[in-house]
Design brief:
- Helix content is 45%, strand content 13%.
- With 91 residues, the chain is of the alpha+beta class.
- The chain has a domain of 56 residues.
- Strands 1-3-2 form a three-stranded mixed sheet.
- Helix 1 packs antiparallel against helix 2, helix 1 crosses helix 3 and helix 2 packs across helix 3.
- The longest helix is centred in the C-terminal third of the chain and has 21 residues.
- The protein is elongated, with a radius of gyration of 14 Å.
- The two termini are 25 Å apart.
Length: 91
């Protein structure tokens, strides 16, 4: 049985929850879902330019957990851009 998931602190309230390539109808696109903790990791590390250990403390997770979250987010975003998929942000 897996360990219970710790509460992750998310400070960014995302107003927009869907991104898609221009010129392609939504019904023709595949979606990639990104969770709000992944968006928060991207915001802290890439937009705010925090080191991973500082960002992990802000999210109330360990640095290895933060690194896994960040890696997952970057992988999903890269895949969406390269393969022309829509990005849906779940809260």
């Amino acid at each position: 049985m897996p360990r219970p998931r710790m509460h992750r602190r998310i400070c960014c309230c995302q107003k927009i929850n869907y991104y898609k390539p221009a010129g392609v109808p939504s019904n023709e696109l595949e979606e990639i879902t990104i969770m709000s903790d992944e968006i928060e990791a991207i915001r802290l590390c890439d937009a705010e330019k925090l080191e991973q250990d500082e960002a992990a403390k802000k999210m109330n997770v360990s640095q290895p957990t933060f690194s896994r979250i960040l890696g997952s987010a970057r992988h999903k975003i890269a895949k969406a851009i390269i393969e022309g998929k829509a990005i849906k942000i779940e809260k």
